[in-house]
Amino acid sequence: MLAKRIIPCLDIKNGQTVKGVKFVEIKEVGDPVELGALYAEQGADELVFLDITASHEGRKTFVDLVKRIARNINIPFTVGGGISELSDADALLNAGADKISVNSSAVRNPHLINELAQNFGSQFVVAAIDAKHEQGDDWVVTVNGGRIPTDKRLFSWARECEDRGAGEILFTSMDHDGVKQGFANNALAKLSDNLNIPIIASGGAGKMEHFKDVFTIGKADAGLAASIFHFKEIGIPDLKAYLNNEQIPIRI
Amino acid sequence: MKIIIIKYNAGNIRSVNNALLRLGYEAEITADPTQIQQADKVIFPGVGEASTTMAYLRETGLDKVIVNLKQPVLGICLGMQLMCSHSEEGHVDCLNIFDEKVRKFQLPEGNMENTKIPHMGWNQITDVKTPLFDASLEGEYVYFVHSYYVALGEDTAATTNYILPYSSALQKDNFYATQFHPEKSGSVGERILANFLRL
Asked: Which UniProt keywords apply (chain B) (predicted)?
């Protein structure tokens, strides 16, 4: 049976892993390659590395880092941040990334998803969507780390991403991120029902039960978290043993 | 031992090389027929689209080189599919090493369980056969990303269940193939690659 995936996310700034609370107050937590390898050994199913460095020099550092990750880590990994054209994706593919995620750049230029999928295949393209809850079923897609609302809505934009060739959706609820009160399960379940591609849930993990809920109530294919792993609040082996015990299909 | 990774217009070639480096082996990535023919082990990896990749293999003559190899050959993912007789992806005739057709996954009727295509993530290999899989690998999880599959048949070397039970590995004579990515399957994948290198 296909296992539900546990994905630690590492935000990278100037070559170091950082984790902010609600995307601000950034704290450094260590070397990305070392941390990634440790997570892989502990049973992480995939890793996500997001480059939050804006500068041109930072970009080069990030591509070099991706090469080091590819050499040292034996599970799939996605890289994202600052990918706005084909050449950015090509550099990361050549550095050894298994997938890339696009976020703000795809909102500004949706055709980017088509181009990436046509050139590298859908399996290479993760559409990352940050959204903020308005009311009822209404979620506004935001860009620039949640700071700027757009005219796009979560469910229609996610569908458009799939239609344009995205291979997965990584949905972060800006209302749940960093709050540790559980994932946005209702919105996630609706995404999963509406779409035919896998959904990665992000934002809100605080307890092991939250992962059980996101896989059952939220119908997510994968659960992503950062700080709870970085700050050792939840160990991946403990989490997987718990989920296995709760009858969630998981790779042990 | 001389290990060759066949270089062609497909992704993930570097990933395979990285995995071999982690196992302590140096491989060469080349499209040179002589080098490929002289290797002790040949790896035919691949992420990409079947018909364009097949067209490229025909143009370069790599198609004939591959089918005539006598040393152990390991096809991975698209590599495995191209070693079959025909693929529904672009409706193309392939290398015909394995007499099996490659078909597209169809979502089950009603799709009550929210099954997704592609089959992406970690799934189990069962009924493992051939020296590629020692008995300790029975039931282990490996990493898959694919939308097309090969049905169970006489060359099936491992079975995985997604929508239906299908061939997650094939073997015939000196040709071995996995639908999953051993190079991305953690320590389990490394054991499978090490088994191949020991053949």
From this structure: Amino-acid biosynthesis, Cytoplasm, Glutamine amidotransferase, Histidine biosynthesis, Hydrolase, Lyase
Distance CA B76, CA B41 (A): 14
Establish whether B94 is a catalytic residue.
no
> Could you tell me if B126 and B86 are in contact, meaning their C-beta atoms sit under 8 angstroms apart?
no
Cβ atoms within 10 A of the Cβ of A169, count? 27
Q: Is A235 on the interface with B (CB under 8 A)?
A: no
Domain boundaries, chain B: 3-198
Long-range contacts of B83-86, Cβ-Cβ distance < 8 Å, separation of 24 or more: B83/B44, B83/B170, B83/B175, B83/B177, B84/B150, B84/B170
Domain count, chain A: 1
B137 interfaces chain A, CB cutoff of 8 Å: no
- The whole-number pLDDT of residue B109 equals 86
Concatenating the DSSP letter of every residue in A74-127 gives -S-EEEESS--SHHHHHHHHHHT-SEEEE-HHHHH-THHHHHHHHHH-GGGEEE
Averaged pLDDT, A130-144:
94
Contacts of B118 in chain A (CB under 8 A): 122-123, 167, 197
Superfamily of domain B3-198: Class I glutamine amidotransferase (GATase) domain (3.40.50.880)
The per-type count for chain B, helices as H runs and strands as E runs, is: 6, 13
* Residue B183 annotated to the active site: yes
Chain A residues inside the 8 Å CB shell of B14: 70, 94, 96
As beta bridge partners, residue B170 has B156, B177
Please name the amino acid found at residue A249: P
| A90 shares contact with chain B (CB less than 8 Å) | no
A194 within domain boundaries: yes
Chain B nearest C-alpha distance from A218 (Å): 12
The whole-angstrom separation of Cα A133 and Cα A66 is 33
Q: Does A147 touch chain B (CB under 8 A)?
A: no
The pLDDT value given to residue A24: 47
Give the CATH number, domain containing residue A42: 3.20.20.70
pLDDT at B80 over 90: yes
Q: Is the preceding omega at residue B118 within 30 degrees of 0, hence cis?
A: yes
- Reported as a single tens digit per residue, the pLDDT across B84-128 is 999 999 999 999 999 999 999 998 888 877 889 889 999 999 999
pLDDT score at A55: 67
B186 and A75 in contact (C-beta within 8 Å)?
yes
